[in-house]
Specification:
Radius of gyration: 21 Å
Distance between the termini: 20 Å
Oligomer: single chain
Strand order of the largest sheet: 1-2
Helix content: 55-70%
Structural class: mainly alpha
Number of helices: 5
Largest sheet: 2 strands, antiparallel
Length: 180
Amino acid sequence: MGCCSGRCTLIFLCTLQLLAALERQIFDFLGFQWAPILGNFLHIIVVILGLFGTIQYRPRYIVVYSVWTALWVTWNVFIICFYLEVGGLSKETDLMTFNISMHRSWWREHGPGCIRRVVRPSPPGVLDDFSYVSVTGCIIDFQYLEVIHSAIQILLSLIGFVYACYVISIFMEEEDSCKY
């Protein structure tokens, strides 16, 4: 196989997916969003499995990867619908934290250009740790940053799915030709 083969392209795509998932995992950890953390963790494992299957010529592992990419696209479409509040979903719910905490997207308060101001509702001296956060001046709203992250994941997954199917067919042809 040549250097610019489907196999090398799939290795490159898996590496890009891995980097994008790790970046997303970091920001989901910062925002204590447990549902995306769990999804990203599974995604990282399956992408590593697909990468291993591609490098080691194991088509079954690549099949698992391609099935997972279809599920991953579905999850990211849900994330987009969640943050754009499509179909009765609301980004103000605690759905992404499994209703464990009141944390939200890290990008809500730390987006590009955002100025964060903490406003204490109670007088000083009261041992109340609750505070309101006022965010102004954001260049792009946090929900659009989350949508961009999900759209990148969808794009990489769709391209990865196509190349995974191609590499599986190439591996199967090579396997069939070796039997005779």
